[in-house]
Specification:
- The protein is an alpha+beta fold.
- The chain folds into 3 domains: 4-217, Heat Shock Protein 90, CATH 3.30.565.10; 239-380, Ribosomal Protein S5, domain 2 (2-Layer Sandwich), CATH 3.30.230; 404-637, Rossmann fold.
- Helices cover 36% and strands 17% of the residues.
- It is built from 21 helices and 21 strands.
- The strands form 4 sheets. An 8-stranded mixed β-sheet has the order 1-6-5-4-7-3-2-8, covered by helices on one side. Strands 9-10-13-11-12 form a 5-stranded mixed β-sheet, sandwiched between helices.
- The chain is elongated and about 120 Å long.
Amino acid sequence: MTAEKMSFGADVSRLLDIVAHALYSNRDVFLREFISNASDACDRLRYESIATPSLTGDDNHFRIRILNDTKARTVSIIDNGIGMNRDDLVENLGTIAKSGTAALMEKIGNASGQKDKLSLIGQFGVGFYAGFMVADRITLVSRRAGDDTVWYWESDGKTGFTVREASKKEAKQLMDGRGTAITLSINDDASDYLISDKLLQVIKTYSDHINVPIYLGDGTEDDGKEEPVNKVKALWVRSKDDVTPEQYKEFYNNLSFGIDEPLMTSHWRAEGKIEFSALLFTPMLRPMDLYDPTRKHAVRLYVKRVFITDDCEGLVYPWLRFMRGVIDSEDLPLNISREMLQHNPVIDKIRNNVAKRILNDLDKLAKDDPVAYASFWGQFGAVLKEGLYDAFEHREALLKVARFYSTHKDGAELVSLADYESRMKDGQDRIYYISGENLETLKNSPQIEGFKARGIEVLFFTDTIDDFWLQTVLDYKTKPFQSATKGTIDLDRFGAEDKDSDAKEENPPQSDALEKLKAIIVTTLDEEVSEVRFSARLTDSPVCLVAADHEIDLRMERVLRIHQKYEGNSKRVLEINPGHKLILRLAAIAASETDPARLADAAWLLLDQARIVQGEPVPDPTGFARRMSGFLERSLAA
């Protein structure tokens, strides 16, 4: 038959240069596209042979062969799938993103009313023309299963294409006399794709889990002894019962490039409005880039066993970025939009489904193995709590798995909010907490002395993110969070404090002397504090600083100064302990009115002491040193 010279369709003329030179940022994907289309062709023939067994005859061993010829500078991709006739070639390869796949899926949907189960991958056109990124000429030989004629197609990717009947020599390229053989004449600047190791690396990266065996060779026939270079069946699509712990560990180590074992393995298949398989691992140790400002995750996205990217924005919440693993979608397209997958609504649904499952698995781990969960929380708790700030829809589940140290057992073990709630005092309607950088410092904070003396549990928040999520999560099961360092808290309603401390007298009087001392402190520190008041918080310490009800919390202000260049300088409330021996001694001096300058120095020293305990700098170190020296001199002289 005479060769037919045809022009590309108008859409191809406009888009071909973009497809070949700008659509994909990585030229490796050309091979992924050809393998995907070959797998698609095998799946189509597998389906059609159910109704027409003669299409495959005795040979239903579907396979893909990739051959590299360094002398001829060609790479060939050969499959024994459905193949194409003359009309298929003109229609499929003359129009961008046009293939029989979509039509077949529509046919199946109309017949069964169900989603296609064949994992058909390609939209032939776009992926096929990606070959011109590495080749200046592509030839194709194909015979549709059930037909007698073998067809030849050729194009330089610029002017158009030629279609004719193939010669006997050309037809010999086909395996089993059917399917498609594509040969690319490799450009000089793409010579690395002529190397077997390079082809193997691309196959392992992008197509290792295609559900058709892939053979890589030099053109010799498959004698049945050769091993495929891909794993054929993806680990994540297999049943959990068919996967051993050793296989899970090996897969995790390959993903994470580590030698440790995963702390938790989550393996499931989601079915319903969206379908995907997921195999995700929680590491034992935090990755080096866990706190990178980009907050990128490390979960690979596959579509129907074809690797798409390991950087799909929005696939996993940033607060689950410690996860390692694979998500394989049945619903996402493999076409021109793949570089913009983050805009696909299916991604949002997958992200939410994954978050629900992982949080549920973490809750189960916390119940079944508290020691392992404590290890997890120590490594990743601060990251997980980021979700409390920016994932309202998962807030309840996140609060359920959140853990904190507290005054219970002197901070020796992590507690949940449910644990805290179960131990709340009668009449307690708030959850009390204190935040700071160091756990040991928080345990000894003067602001929580009164809480501990009355048996009221206080949570310790030591991560910077705590101060941010507390601005949006106002309560837990209708019980508000209340900072122990902010506002007026009526602790006396929970009963009297323990009076056994050596630092206090029995029943210290609220005398005129104390009021007079308070007045002197107010006058002296008028420019530095907003209020001076007697404290129910203190039992062992003489003074402390707290935030007024309408002011920003102490640590939050410090965090904002560091991270957001906050320039505010709130006046704090200075609370004094009326039962402390130092305060009582100063009150006696105030009552005698013998040394007002000494009392003024004492007021400044009390304020600086409170600042130091709070972790804040002393604004006047020279004045502080002078006053301290004076008090030491008088003390030693006495």
